[in-house]
Write a structure and sequence with these properties.
The chain is mainly alpha-helical. The protein has helices at residues 2-15, 18-22, 27-35, 39-54, 64-72, 86-92, 101-122, 133-155, 186-203, 214-227, 231-244, 255-258, 282-288, 302-308, 350-364, 367-383, 395-409, 416-425, 449-454, and strands at residues 268-272, 320-323, 331-334, 345-349, 432-433, 436-437. It is 49% helix and 5% strand. It starts with a helix and ends in a 15-residue tail after the last helix.
Amino acid sequence: MKLYKYIFLIALATATACDDLLELEPEGEIIADEALQTPQDMQDLLNSAYDALRGEGGDFLGGRVQSIAEVMADNIDGSLNNLNNADFRAYYDKSSSFFTGYTQAMFDEPHFVIYRANVLLQNLDILEGSTDANRIEGEAKFLRAICYFELIRLFAQPYGYTSDNAHLGVVLRTTPSAESRDRNTVAEVYAQIVTDLEEAATLLPESNGVYANSWAARAYLAKVHFHRHDFQQAFDLAVDVLNNGPYAFNTSTEEYTDRFSEAGSQEAIFFMISNPNDHRGTQFTTHFRSDGDNPPTLRISQEMFDQATSNPNDLRSEWYVVENEGLENQAISVTKFDGINYFNVPLMHVTELKFIRAEAGAELNQPATLSVAINDINDIRGRAGLSDLPANTDAQVLLTSIRNEKRLELVAEGHRFHDLRRRGANGESSLRIRGSDWDCPGMAIQFPDTEIAGAGGTDAFTPNPEGGC
């Protein structure tokens, strides 16, 4: 009976919108009182939280979040010939609305993870005396943190948009409560993310199989501080993970195929593992794969392609295929996800962390940090077949190179949009994204109608402004 109730609740969480689920009192109490009685019950619920991380059909970190971010930046071709999906068109035009369908699916999945994490954290007494107590608590806090990090970066203006970050973020829930209320501030949400990751880094073991470990928590914490413009903490944490953790930069160009592969990359710090019957990256292949039965949903912009192929020595220039070149219906695709039916999905890897350390080091502009930054970017350039930057490269030239290399290296992985807005909030006030101000209203996507209605309508919940940029 207990197992039946547990399975029912997990199925319900997969099929029900977030606020609907939270309102289903006393179902939350049923999870605590009847479904969760042993440490194994807690482990099973934790496993289900990991499963929801990718989202049903990849609707969260299985490629949808990353694809939306790519569309909102400047890597994607927005011509009518090559972007005819209505929802992606809304993101591209910075005009998402309450009824943008992709938003609903993407919004629900992280809240299933958050809900399950909160139930776990509310019932830690079940783990009293268990050797797994710290680990399960740490994993729950880690998962909650990375979900809120992804949500806050899409549904709110970035950290630094206001001087005190009192602008609205997302509703922050740290208990499985059905309370209807308005959004928390960006400052409050980021503070919780930092706290969760700091505690996770302490609670988690250094080795934890394919699940989150303390190194993954520290790597994510470096990324969070980087987006908070705290470059010293970002730099120090990245140094710790890269110098002391069990991960190494892959100098071989095999990394270009290993990163998204069946076996996965040795650079992966935190990833979702796939198998032939359960591909965790389905939204990547749906939207980008150029050799499938159907054409990719998303094509690469001419400007991105021109930059990627400007240096014939750059091995990454081979990642593109051009159809109908020079014609009105020309289409450019990226081949990162071609040739394979399933692959592990890296959510944090060594190359990304080296980019974080390099840019933070250049921002700090100190002799020691500049030296590390130059070494990092030269590692990445060298693997791509490019010459080294001189050891005396100044900070501004270095920053430009780091940002260009990051765009080329991590295309289609969902970083560009967040990097551009972060830079705007950090002082590049005139920065524009495809002709629009980095902080125009449409840069924060609209909440789905179910979230607004579930919170009590616009009288109780403040949506984002609409109208594009």
